[in-house]
Sequence to fold (216 residues):
Amino acid sequence: MAIQEVVPNDGGAQTIAKLADILNRKGAKWDYIVSNPTTGSKYKTERYAFLWKVAQLKKIGEAWLEAKYQLEIDREPYYCTFQYKGKNFTLSNFHAITKKLQPETEIKYFKFLPKQYSEHNLIFLGDFNCPQSHSVFGPLKGMGYKPVFQNQKTSLKKQCNGSDCLASEYDNIFINTSKVEVINTGVIHFYQDFESIQKTKEISDHIPIWATIEIK
Fold:
């Protein structure tokens, strides 16, 4: 489980610990890790988090924030390598700047990351604040990285139009098709469990996305 937008203050990291504790009381052992604050402005600084079932995944080495492009990317990606049945993959957790600030000016640097981390099976995921159809993803797609979701809106509207509550196609997962096969995908319409969209947004203004994958 990859989480973005963990606030650096006001108990963000402690809340992740509380979530892990709740999960650990459900019958399976979970572990977690929270990043250091990103290096953007104070207003934009955030943390990232990963949670995983220890019986299923083994964390390999130390997780790290992107260093080379930390000046070009306000909330630089957070990487962590996991092993499943002897096969490694590295998740790159990312939260782009908002749409009005042009997230494509950050995403354009992602084309350099596969070569920079050539020994890693990178999986890019998170809130790109930009649809996968944008031309900025062209270089990644050209290297074999394909979006798991297409035409799937994930951010919440200010107000629902009947049952239509989703606004923009911002969240996605990019996998290297030569190394990873997608078995199944889905989204969680958790806002349907709340009495109003305003109450929903006290939790998040995006819906969770998920994918079942196989490492080749």
